[in-house]
Specification:
Radius of gyration: 24 Å
Number of helices: 14
Shape: elongated
Strand order of the largest sheet: 1-2
Strand content: under 5%
Structural class: mainly alpha
Largest sheet: 2 strands, antiparallel
Number of strands: 2
């Protein structure tokens, strides 16, 4: 049975033809490009804000013809208005990307070419370096005994430790770890790789340590709920899907116990995986494959982290300091 069509979008600032094309555009991005619901929501919100601005800017409702005739000054005025609202550079970049996507969609559909959008440069965004954890701290986060004093069932403590061990041991995103099916995780001694599904439904193979598999197997043995082969291997307290928020809360408790900064999040374990591999001579291309990055430039941010560490060692240890 096919899914029901999305309800038409209503826009006070634009002609119904724009609303119709916006509905079709978002449906296309969801079905064909497989963008996440959060990204679709953000793109839709950005386009609405642009249309509201243009309506006030021009003093009339926006039509398809008028939108196609956008000038670069109109887009710059919109971006300036958003920047005046203290919108971060990344959000401005996303807004421009969404507008360009909508413009390309209109062009493919024969509804006009919005040439002005390609003439606008994307705002510069400062690169923020991930903050990896010290190796010893990363290992302790995957130790269930660190939370032995908490009033929680043992199987839950072991479950949380197993998830964190996968994040650090294999460099998984939290969604990838929680998306693993039981049949996809080998028993200790029966395999040493995982096939995970990442962003854009792309699959990749990653190595997994035997002591991590042993921790996962310990959780499976203790779990009071059925874990069918085709079901998720990690479940919540009542046997339903395990929410990422549960792992985030577990990490928050451990931060306090281990004296770690607020930057110590589940995603920081993935950053730590990459940084620690690189610091021990890991190849950047290989790390790119392990992380599932589509572009090497995304992985190259870790060279900055390692350079910082080397400079710190140099500054503290050089005999002529």
């Amino acid at each position: 049975m096919s899914k029901a069509a999305a309800p038409p979008i209503e826009l006070a600032s634009a002609d119904p033809s724009i609303a119709q094309e916006m509905t079709r555009w978002l449906a296309h991005l969801g079905a064909e490009r497989r963008l996440s619901p959060k990204t679709l929501e953000a793109y839709g919100r950005d386009l609405r804000q642009c249309l509201d601005f243009l309506c006030a800017h021009w003093g009339e409702r926006v039509t398809l013809a008028r939108f196609a005739a956008l000038e670069a000054t109109d887009i710059r005025a919109f971006m300036a208005m958003r920047r005046a609202d203290d919108i971060a550079g990344r959000s401005l970049m996303r807004a421009l990307a969404g507008l360009r996507s909508f413009g390309r969609f209109l062009e493919r559909e024969g509804k006009g070419k919005v040439g002005a959008l390609s003439a606008i440069r994307a705002p510069k965004v400062g690169k923020t370096l991930p903050k990896p954890l010290p190796m010893a701290s990363a290992k302790r986060l995957a130790d269930a005994d660190e939370r032995a004093g908490e009033e929680r069932e043992t199987w839950i403590l072991v479950r949380d430790a197993a998830v964190m061990a996968l994040l650090y041991g294999s460099g998984l995103r939290i969604s990838e770890a929680l998306g693993l099916k039981r049949r996809e995780v080998p028993r200790p001694g029966e395999g040493d790789v995982l096939v995970v599904t990442g962003k854009g439904n792309k699959t990749r193979m990653v190595p997994v340590l035997q002591n991590v598999l042993a921790l996962v197997q310990e959780y499976v043995a203790l779990c009071p709920h059925p874990l069918p082969a085709d079901g998720p291997i990690f479940v919540g307290a009542r046997g339903g899907p395990l929410s990422p928020r549960i792992i985030q809360l577990a990490m928050e408790r451990l931060r306090g116990a281990l004296g770690l900064p607020d930057s110590a999040t589940p995603h920081a374990l993935r950053h730590s995986f990459a940084t620690h591999l690189l610091s021990r001579g890991g190849d950047l291309r290989a790390i790119q494959e392990l992380l599932g990055h589509s572009s090497l430039s995304t992985t190259q941010i870790y060279t900055g982290i390692d350079s910082e560490r080397l400079l710190e060692v140099y500054a503290s240890a050089h005999p002529r300091r």
